[in-house]
Structure formats: structure tokens, C-alpha cells
Predict the structure.
Amino acid sequence: MIETPPALAATAGGSLLVLAILLPCAGILLSFALGGRFAERIALGLTPIGLAIALAVSVLVWRSGAPVVTNIAGLPPPLGIALRADGISCVMLVTAALVIAGAALYARASFATPAGVSEARAPLAFWIMLQAIWAALTILFVGGDLFNLYVALELLTFAAVPLVCLAGKPETLVAALRYLLFALFGSVFCLLGAALLYGAYGTLDIVLLAERVRPQPAVWLAAGLMTAGLLAKTALFPLHLWLPPAHAGAPPAASAVLSGLVVKGSFFLTVRLWFSVLPALPGGAAEAALGTLGAAAILFGSVLALRQPRLKLLIAYSTLAQIGYLFLIFPLASGAHPWIADGWGGGIMQTLSHAFAKAAMFMAAGLLAESLGHDRIAEFAGAGRAMPATVFALGLGGLSLMGLPPSGGFAAKWMLLRASVAAGHWVWAVVMLAGGLLAAGYVYRILAPALSDGVVVLKSPPQRSREGVALALALVAVALGFAPQSFFDFLQIGRAAATAALP
Amino acid sequence: MNASTLAGLVGAGLVGLGLYGLIVNPQPLRKILAFNLIGSGVFLMFGIVARRGAAAGFPFDPVPQAMVITGIVVAFAASALSVALILRLYEETGTATLDSDPAAKPPDDGARDT
Amino acid sequence: MTGALGPLLLAATLVLPLLLLTACLSARWHNEALALQWLAPIPAAAAAILAIAGGPFAFDAPALRLSLRLDLPGALLLAVASLLWIVVGAAVFASPGDRPNGRFAVSWLLTMAGSLGVFIAADLITFYLVYALVSIPAYELIVRDRDPSSKRAGAVYMAFAILGEALLLMAFALLAAGEPSGSLRIEDVVAALSTSPWRDGALALLIAGFGMKMALAPLNGWMPLTYTAAPIPAAAVLSGAAVKAGVIGLIRFLPFAAPLPSWGEALAVIGFVSAFYGVAIGITQQNPKTVLAYSSISQMGVIAAVIGMALASGDADATPQIAFAAANHVLVKGALFLAVGVAAATDFRRDRLTLILMVALALSLAGLPFTGGALAKFAVKDPLGDGLAAGLANASAAGSALLMLHFLARLVRTASRGVEAAAPGLTRLWPAIAIGALFTPWLLYLAVGDPRDAASIAKLWDGLWPIMIGAALALGLQRWGKSLPRIPEGDTVVAAEAAFNASLPISAVFESLDARLRRWPVAGLSLLAIALVLAAMAAYGG
């Protein structure tokens, strides 16, 4: 009987992780089987259960102070596959559950199966793809095996692409095709990297790899290939060609999920790769390179957002910029320095607050476009008076993007600033401040016309419940600013184990 | 030169050819073919890994074979999805090319969402 | 009893405006909330009086990341600021007929909450939050009339506000980094500042950020534009109370405990340059509101110079004196802005009292004896010392006299043309407001020193001769004023706007770069290149 080493042993509550994955998968199968309007009901019904499971896992991790681990079929790695939920997995699970719940509630009005038909193409596709994205994200956040994670990443892409072109218009088809092909370009690099790693070490389990990884050509090449592939899926500058038309052309509920969650999935995987698998690689040159690309993304995306005449494209370019902030986690949280706790907390907080804020903004933009019939910013005059709650949600989301207190965006920026000051890396601080100024510029560009006097004719007033969902998500982004220190300690759970693997 | 090295060179060649096709060719269908070519190259890599990682008693390591099979399924699904999109694009516009307008923006009457 | 009352009043200072804000937003309580808006600063006034009479007290709410503390300088400023908000708020909101709309009221309450909160914030995050509150919602107060000039003023104001916030954020990050125990309380970070490795960067950013708020030259361009374009009540509270956020920022964040000669003298130089710059440009302006704006620039320059001298000599006890001088300015400037509207509604030939009060109020900024302004000049004598700084301060008093006489001349001349007239109620009440503004500082001075010291005959001459010189210069201005160049209000901003417009094509460069990067072959090659570069970086280590 082989003794399982303690790092790989299963812990209590591991079945919750399996349940978390099975739930949306079961939803997908049921939706296929029952079809039609049942898909909507199943999706809506499963989201609270999924949220409850995510919260239960978080409570377990919080109580035990260690990641929750389970080995599928009881077989520990390298024979079997492990699922691990550490601090950041839990917060991402909860965030995904909340944003998907919000998107589902918001989408009820636009993707309801019409009365009189048993099934319609777009609604069925939407509800099934939404659950597929949710399933893929769950596996991404708790998966413990790199190949497993690769498959989940593919599932995420395949589920996200149809959402882009759900409306069926030619430009969205082109955008979806470009997204798919570029994402596949990235996937094949990921697969090649996985092959190299397996060839070198005989396993793809994250904890085992962390113990075995040494500086070697195979590892360097694998790191470069996998990271580049993941960057293509996260649309980091300069690999951002697919994101603006895809996120702007998708229906608003889908854009909310795409910008809020889908790009975070591949980012999460990049974080796992560099912080859980590769910390044994010495030096910080690669992390600094990632930070540089992030800084370029911040400046580039913000300036381009300033130039957009249309709201949805502006928000999509703003996503490009905010993704850049995420990549500052690499230079600021790697190695063994006193400031890495701040860098880590800031990066994860940015991920969470951007997910909520961007989802809220896309939903509000969708409401504006529906009620006004267009999304040309210059012609928004008077929209603030006609649709106050919607514009308020837009403003609150913008508050988090600008990094003004009280908001999660400010908390993230503050921690990243402190980390860069402590590290002496002034360049990140200057870039973050410049990004904040530019973000203020494009948020002002959206709000000033909307709040100015004018008379606007609404084609149809927005539904209260949909405004409420957008507002609720924006308020969560603001509430994240009040996260206590214990929240950031929670994010550190599971980190020590990764850095303990350093030789 | 043994079988592994030959397979490795062929795999590298496939990946190189596929990369060339993927980057240079403007037509989506050819990009899909190129992607599949790269995929084949990567699967060959897995095959070599299987051969070299064999434990004492077995002629090959089963895990990479499982990965190859999964990879083939994923590549197949990817190709199917892409071809479906290309067909739909062709039906809608009568042409199937990507680089007609790299900074494609939705038309100016505002993207009406469903 | 006072033990618990003080902290409660502190909390109420922030809570009451926000409560009224929620009431404003609901349809049911909207009108009642608007009518009672002017009562919102009352807890603040009570807290300030309590702190002046008693000692400092604090309020902490760790769950909300909020800590508040009221000490003497903060209390002095809080008292006058809340008084100003009450008076102007009553003028704006008390009459049901002419009440402004909901958006103005919401911005009013938010700016008020920030303006009062800035004097009581005790840790970095709370301070940043209330500073944002006092700066950003004020946009709506400025652009109420929605004409092109007010929109331009609003845009310039926002640009300066956001830039100032960014500089302060960086300063706060440096301050927090220099504090070894990780505390974010202002007293802790400032105590650690003089020995912190980032001292110089933090000081530069603090002076730049707060200097922007106080409109120190050359960052002063926004103030004339804003105060000219804003409606009179908004200009009164912004120039009176909101600008003092910069003053309290310098008072709180500069490390007065240890002398810093180079930084202090630099700040003093900037201050005196602003003081004379404000006078020089102000006398070329025709609109009385613009002249008042330049007068604010000049007065804030003097205060900044006093702060600089106190910093240079390490004089920590000078802060109540400085706060007193700023407090006097709050009252006088607020009353003067209201006077612009009152003058438009008054026939000066019949109403001599109003005219006399206006002259007294205007000259009190130059240190007219027996007014609060004379007390303010007396209060800052010690920090200024006896040398060059004192001489420059006297010269700036003469300059202020010149500028204020010019203001009075413009006020009388343009009174009937175009400026919005004040409501009859305000016009009747204005003399009381003016008398209050002239003499309330005497009450406040009790907390800072002995008023009898300031009231002797020798001080009478000290106060008079700068005014006489200023009056003589004013006569000269009357004679030869026409030949002065016409400088557009907003002076340096005009150049900045031109530079900004010239830099806009850079974003077009970004867009063409984007178009190029988004072509498939370029993106594909970038992907390949990134893979290889990252692999090389991983190999290189670092």
C-alpha cells in the first residue's frame, strides 16, 4: 500500500468540489434532454445551489486554514487527478456564481423562449452555453492537473465563442471566428507546453510538478509556450485583436460574462502556472516581462477607450486596460519579499472587483442601447434623467475602474501601489496612476453626456429587475472596498504550500 | 538516428509548417487545416514522450496516449465548430475571409441586442 | 457627558448629510429634505465648538475603515466652514420658489459631506475618500447653468481635481510605505515622515497635490474659470470652504515637528509668488467674481507662505494660528461672494450701510484694523518672523488692498449688468452676515491667543499703512488702468489647453498602432515572439 504524502492527501469536504463541477454539467445534460424553456429554468434554478456550494467550500477552507483537496476515485496523483480549492479558488468560485446568477437574471428578458414555440435557437444556445462556461470555470478554479485544466480551458473557449455570434449578424460571426481561431492558436501552444512538461517529469499534477521542476530547457520552453497561449486567450496586449469586436458585438448578458469571467479563467491559469507550478524557477525576468506587457496594456487600452464613439466598444477597450492591471501581480507578488502579500492581495482584488464592475457596466450599457436604440455616446444627452438607475450603475462601475474610494478597484490599486513602492519599482506605480487618470477620462466621457441636460426619447423604459441586477453587481464592486484584513489573509491560504516547494 | 528522433523531427516539421500556415494564410479554412497540422505535430511529441517515459516492464506509457486521444477529440470539436462558423459566415455574406477589416466594428446604427 | 458627545457629533457630521442625501433621492421625502438641507452642518458646528472649548476627541469605526479626530486647527476651520455652509445653504434652499433641482442638491450634500469631513479625517483612506467627495461632485455645482463657459470651467476643474487626486494617492502610498508598523493613521505616518527614505518624494507630491487645491501658482488656472462660471452660492462655498481642504491637508501632512529649511523656504517662495501673481493678474480683470478668485489665489499664497516658514523653522505650534488665518478667509470670502449678488440687487445711493460693510469686508482681507483680517495678520506674525518674509507679507497686504479696491470699483460699476441678483431675503440679511464675518473671528481668536494683544494702538498703524499704500495704488489704477493688458481669465490654463489639444493626435497614433497590431499575421507573429521571449526570460532568471 503506497502511503500518500501529506501534500497530496485528500481532506474533508472534498466531495463538495466534485459536486460543484457536476452541478452545471448535469444542468447542461438536462437542458439538452428537456430542451426549450426548461433550459432557462434549469440554469436559473441551479445558480443558487452553485452559489451555496461555493460558499460552503469557502467556509471549509476558512475554518481549516488549508486547501480542500480531493482525489478523484480516491487515486492520488501521479496515478489519479486531484481537485484543490485554496483561498483564491474559493473567491473566484463565489464570484463566478454571483456574476453568472446576475447574467442569468438579466438575460431572462432577452433570452426567454417565446410563447407558442417549444424551443428557439438563440435561447436554448444561450442557456446551455452559460452553464457550460460555468462548468468550465469551476474546473479551472479547482483543477489540480494541468491537462485537466487545458481541457477545461478548451471547454471555456468553445462555450464562449457561440455566445459572441448568437445574434447571427455577419460582423459578430467574423468576430467569433477570429476569437476561435486565435484561441485555438493559443491552445495548441498550451498543449505543446504540457507535452514538454510531461516529457520532463512524468506528471502534470500541480503539486508534484512544483516539487520536481528545475531550471531546464524543457521547462523554460514549456513555460514560454504555455504562457503565450494563455495570454492569447486573455487578450493581453499585443494579442488583443479579437477582444473588442467580440465583447462589443455579443449580447449584453454574454458580454458581461465574457469580460467579467471568461478572460479571468485563462488569467487564473497563468497565475496557477507561475505561482504554483514554477516558483522554483529563480529570478524575476519573465515576471517583469509579463508586468511590462500589462503596463503597455493599461496605457494602450485606456487611450484607445478614450477615442471610442460607441459605448460598448469603449467598455471593451476598457477591459483591455483593466486586464493589464491584473498582470502587475506577476512582478509584485513573486519571489520571497516582504511586499508580496500586498501584491497578491491587490492582484486578486483587482480580478474580483473588475469582474463585478465590468459585468455591471456591460449590463447597464445593454439597457441603454435597448432603450435608446443606439449606443453612440455623443447622443446620450438626457439619458441620466430618463434612466437614473442605469446611469448610476454605470457610474458606480466606473468608480471602481477609476480606482476611487470606496471601491474594490481602489483597494486593489492601493495595495499594488504599496507593493510597488516597497519594491522600489516606480514604473508600475507611475503606470497605474496614469491608467487611473485615463480611466477617469473615459468614465467622464461616458457620464458627462449622460448627465447633461437634454431630452431623450426612450423606445421602451428599462425593466426594474434588470436595472436592479446591474446595480447590485456594481454595489458588490463597491462593497469589496470594505474587505477586512481577514479577507486578504484568506487569499493567502494555499500560497505557503506553493512557495514551500522552493528548493 | 532512432525512431524517436525521427518522429521528433517530423513533429517539429509539422508544427513549423502549421505555424507558417496559421500565421500567413488569410483564409479561415486553411487556418483550420494548419491548426490541425500543428495538432498532429504535438500528438507526435506526445507519442515520443510515451515511448521514452515507459516504465521498465511496458513498451510505452499509457498516460500520454490518453492525452493524445483527448487532444484529438478537442481538435475535432474545434474544427467542427470553426467549420460551422465558416459555413454560416459564407451563408450570410457570400464570402469567408477574415482580414477584410481587421478593426471590424459593428455598423453605426448600434448593435441591437436580441 | 462631553466624553461621549464629541465622538457622536463627529460621526453625525458625516452621517447627517448622507441621511439627507438618501431622503433627497426618495420621492416621498424629496421636498422636505431639500427644505431642511441647510441644517445638515449643525452637528459639525457643535462638534467644532466642543473641540475648541474642550480638547481634541476622536471617533473610530474599524469595521468601516473610518477614523475621525478633531483637534484645534481642524476645529477652527470646521466651525467656520459649517457656519458658511449653513448660511449659504439657507440662502439657496430656504425659499421654496427658487429651489434648485435634485442633481444640484445631491452634489451640494456630497460636497458638503466631503468639505466637513476633510477637517476631521484621521487616517489616510478616510482622508482620501472625503477629499474625493469635496472635489468631484462639485462639478455639478459649477456647471449648473450648462452654458459653454461653465462646461469649459467644469472640464478644467475636473482635470485639475483628478490630477491632484492622483498625485495625492501616490503621496499617500509613499507615506504609508514609510510607516514601519503599517498604521494608516495620519499622526503616525507624519511622525515617520521626516526619517522616511521617501520623504522628499512624498513632500513634493503633497505640496503639488494640495497646492493644486489651493490654486498656488502656477497651478491656479482653474480657480478664476470656476468661480466666474459657477453660480454665486456655489462659488461662495467652494472658495470659502472647499479650498481649505488643501490648507488642512498641508497643516496635517507636513512634518512640522522637525525643521525642514529647504522645503519650507521653497513652499514660502511658491506662496509669495502666488500672492503677488494673484494681485497682478487680478487687477486686469473686469468681472468682480474673477477678481475675487484672484484674491483667493493671493490669500492662499500668503497662507502657504506662512506654512512654509513654519515648516522651515520646525514650528509645530503655529498650526492653530495658520488655521485661524484660513478660517478668517473662509468667512470673508464667502460673504464677499454673496455680496456680488447683493450688489446687483442694491441701490447704493440709498443703502449706505451695505456699502460701508462691503468696503470694510473687502479691506479686512488687507488687514483693516478691528476686523477679523487684522487678527489674522497678527496671528501669523510669529511664524513669519521678522525678516524678508514679514516684509513680503506686508507688501502683499498692500497688494490685497489694491486688489480689493479694484474689486469694489468693479462691483459698483457692473452691479446692474448681467450678474445674477440675490433674492430679497438674502439682500436684507446680508448686513448681518457681513457683520458676522467681520467679527466672529474675534470670538475664535480666544482659542488661539489673547485678543487684547491685537487691539493696541501700535497695531492700528501696522494695519493701516499697507491699506493706505494700496489705496494710493488703486487711484493710480483708476487713472492708468485702461492700458493694462487684457489677460484671459484662467491665464495658464489657456496655454495648457493649447498644449493638450496639440497632444491629441498622439492618441491617433495609438489607434493606427492598434489597427496594425490587430492584423492576423502581426498578432500571430507576436504570439510566437512572446513565447520565445518568455522562454528566454525564464532561462535567464534575473
Chain C is about 75% helix and 0% strand. The mean pLDDT of chain C is 84.
